[in-house]
Design goal:
9 helices, 5 strands, 214 residues, 41% helix, 5-stranded parallel sheet, alpha/beta
């Protein structure tokens, strides 16, 4: 196989020297409607405006519109053939590949001195641990957005829990598909009790205490 790894002339350390922070992967995980995307975006906003940080948000729904689009998402468009060959659904194996791809993209950002903020249900521990193992010690920051299922069902902004309970949506995490919460996350956010702003500030405190944000 004629595929080789090429070392880059500009090092990670040189890129980070231009920042007010180190590169890292901040991995939000939790049930649908737990608040992952909301807190991730508030955090990104704070990092950009208050700390002039170079950060990027990789959101589950947004990624499903492009990199990991499904056949259904691209049906009737010029990209339908692409989706048939490379698109992902929501089976266990497709969810695994979804997280593998995102982990690889997040690693590229982090290696280039950027704070990669991801917001995915990522229900299986083994998939999240694979992303962690591919990074340097301390580079992967797992954040469990711990919101009770009852609160998520009450929010249900997309009506997904209602559809899942009615049998219209199969394999939905928390209803008929498991969610494996982190055992020892770097940050635990009690998102059913606090505002997105206060939760984002808890993440900022962690980043400061661990010398990721200066």
């Amino acid at each position: 196989m004629n595929v080789y790894w090429h070392d880059l002339m500009v090092t990670r350390q040189q890129r980070e020297s231009l920042n007010t922070h180190k590169g890292c992967v901040i991995w939000f995980t939790g049930l649908s409607a737990s608040g992952k995307s909301t807190v991730a975006n508030v955090l990104d906003h704070i990092l950009f405006h208050q700390y002039k940080a170079r950060s990027v948000v990789l959101d589950g729904d947004n990624i499903r519109h492009g990199l990991n689009a499904s056949t259904e998402m691209l049906k009737g468009t010029h990209k339908e053939d692409f989706a048939r060959r490379f698109g992902l659904g929501f089976s266990a194996i497709d969810r695994e590949e979804n997280i593998r791809r995102i982990g690889s993209v997040a690693k590229l950002f982090s290696q280039n001195g950027i704070i990669a903020i991801t917001a995915f249900i990522s229900p299986y521990r083994i998939d999240r641990d694979r992303v962690r193992d591919a990074l340097l010690p301390g580079e992967f920051i797992e954040i469990f957005v711990d919101t009770p299922l009852a609160v998520c069902e009450r929010r249900d902004p997309k009506g997904l829990y209602k559809k899942a309970k009615a049998g219209e949506l199969k394999g939905f995490t928390g209803i008929d598909s498991p969610y494996e919460p982190p055992i020892s996350p770097e940050v635990l956010l009690l998102a059913g009790e606090k505002t997105p702003e206060s939760l984002a500030e808890e993440v900022i405190v962690f980043l400061k205490n661990n010398q990721i944000l200066v």
